[in-house]
Amino acid sequence: MARQYILNKQGSANESPETPSQHDPREHQLAILEALADGVDPFTTEELPHESIYQHAKVLRALQSAIAALKKQHEKASQREKLPAKAGKPWDDEEDTRLLEAFDGGTSPKELSEIHGRTLGAIQSRLTKKGRLQ
Asked: Where is the composition biased (Basic and acidic residues) (predicted)?
């Protein structure tokens, strides 16, 4: 019943105001889990009763594990968002040709990384593979 109430309550007028970071569902989920682990109702901010199931050691350990996993997942997603657009994507013949022509024309690997939307390491690796760098 409580689970259904929380699921139905998402986006309702009675829900506590969102902080800017809670627009990201991962941040919102993390805030809820951290509040429960701290013994606080995530919607009213009232302290949970000491006999609450959320105060049980096994439940607290499970919440802490979930918090750690969600933080790790959020960190990985943040790192992926910082990568260039084509990071990790396969190279095609046309892109190889443009890369080699630009490099042979004097364009630096740093500039090439920006032009091709790839990491500097990817550019250097590709130039090494194609025999332009050692």
From this structure: 75-84
How much is the pTM?
0.55
Alpha carbon distance 65, 75 (integer Å): 15
Residue 96 identity (one-letter amino acid) = D
Strand partners for 47: 40
Residues above pLDDT 90, as percent of the chain:
69
User: Taking Cα atoms as reference points, which of 94, 76, 86, 82 lies closest to residue 113?
Assistant: 86
**Diameter of the chain measured on Cα atoms:** 73
Q: Are residues 57 and 116 in the same domain?
A: no
State the Cα–Cα distance between residues 127 and 125, nearest whole angstrom.
5
- Rounded CA-CA distance 127/134 in Å is 8
Count of the separate structural domains present in the chain: 2
CA dihedral sign, ordered 111, 117, 122, 126? negative
